[in-house]
């Protein structure tokens, strides 16, 4: 192979690799229903602080004592940092109150519009809805 062909091939592979995160990204309205608000209180069990969205999971106990694990999507790490978040704002074991919008598919998933730390009352925005972080 000629060097120019190899360079062209490498550039093409680089462009395809750069497009993969864009293909994985989705719109708020494709996944969540803004007309189905939810407020849940629970204990953080896992946090995935990575692009394109931060996800965290809560164990939520209902009135009968049954515990269900819920997943919440927030905005991208950089947007959350601009809104006052750090990787250590919320930790596994923390109790939080989450306001958001339920997933359209009926699973235990929601888009987190805001997160309130139960121990301090500190409330931070977290929504990725319509690309905005309040």
Report what the structure shows.
This protein is of the alpha+beta class. It has 3 helices and 6 strands, in the order H-H-E-E-E-H-E-E-E. The protein has helices spanning 3-24, 28-31, 77-82; strands at residues 32-48, 55-61, 67-73, 95-103, 109-117, 123-125. Strands 1-2-3-5-4 form a 5-stranded mixed barrel. The protein is elongated and about 70 Å long. The protein starts with a helix and ends in a 9-residue tail after the last strand. Mean pLDDT is 83; it is low at 17-25 and 130-134.
In what range is the share of β-strand residues? 35-45%
- Report Rg: 18 Å
Task: Provide the CATH topology.
Answer: OB fold (Dihydrolipoamide Acetyltransferase, E2P)
- Do you know the CATH architecture? Beta Barrel
The shape, in one word, is elongated
The number of domains: 1
Features of the shown structure:
alpha+beta, OB fold (Dihydrolipoamide Acetyltransferase, E2P), five-stranded mixed β-barrel, 3 helices, elongated, disordered C terminus
Structural topology:
Elements lengths: L2 H22 L3 H4 E17 L6 E7 L5 E7 L3 H6 L12 E9 L5 E9 L5 E3 L9
Parallel strand pairs: 3-5
Antiparallel strand pairs: 1-2, 1-4, 2-3, 4-5, 5-6
